[in-house]
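pipeline/complex-builder :: batch 7 item 3
reading input block
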Amino acid sequence: MGILEFLQQPWPWYVAGPLIGLTVPLLLLVGGKHFGVSANLRHACAIIPNRIDFFNYDWRKAGIWNLVFTAGILIGALVGGVLLANPEPLQVAAATQADLAEIGVATDGGFVPSEIYSWSNLLTLPGLLLMVGGGFLVGFGARYAGGCTSGHAIMGLAELQLPSLVAVIGFFVGGLVMTHSLLPLILGL
Amino acid sequence: MDATRTTPQPDISTGDHVRANLKYLPIGFYFGFILIKSEVVAWYRIQEMFRFQSFHMYGVIGAAVLVAALSVWLIKRFKLRALDGSDITFTPKAPTYPRYIIGGTFFGLGWAATGACPGPILALIGSGLSVFLVVLASAVLGTWTYGLLRHKLPH
């Protein structure tokens, strides 16, 4: 298998997982920085002049390293998802395909079901609830909990922090309720 | 949060800050590239995870935590310093649990609704799914709302 082929195909969990984990020591050893993506949402608010105490701090000093890291994510995803995109359709577990078909979601080979997560569906009720409402909950919940999947599930758990374990259990409770109870309702609207 | 509350220093421009922190660009590139190649950015992978129908996400997150935990242990054990000379410190998170339970549950609802957490939202935008710019803008609005209501919320 050539290097180009390797870079194009999806990587199994035992390759991708450890490589994602290495982001933590990379950031610590390069500059003593703690892995966490959602703090950038707070920095984005702090850039806007405002009178809210939570957003009045020196975002340049505290956050520019992370915003630069974020710019790197965008470029890395552009290279990985466009220039070196996997030419094959996304493979999804048969049981998941069957469950999704029951609530009217087709497995179309893309990262996301294009009939739901698209500009043309944005102004429908399900589109608004899932994209605008879902995004709002991601931002609100991440800051309320003090971190997201990177800050709590990876960084916090790696530091053996009990608060992070509690937050991750919360992530799962919310995710299970949305997947099994709310998603079928929303898609039926 | 390591956000400090000092006032902005006008003698250091934003551009200077960016230049001083450019070393984090390749690390972000590395992370974004793997987010795509591991397919953890896929809405369908998140569905598989919350329906317990594939091991993939558990394998990725579990292996990432294992490698990260081992790294943190080694860094503490050998009291390593960062390449730029700065100290590597770890601060225990405040043990005030309502915020983790309530905030975490809100976050989980959003994670499953969008099929993406903050890193993957950015990666999906990078991979050309431009409608996730709306998800990102909503996430900023959600963060803003938290900042507004913070003093009224149980922590």
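note: The first helix of chain B runs from residue 14 to 20.
queue -> next item
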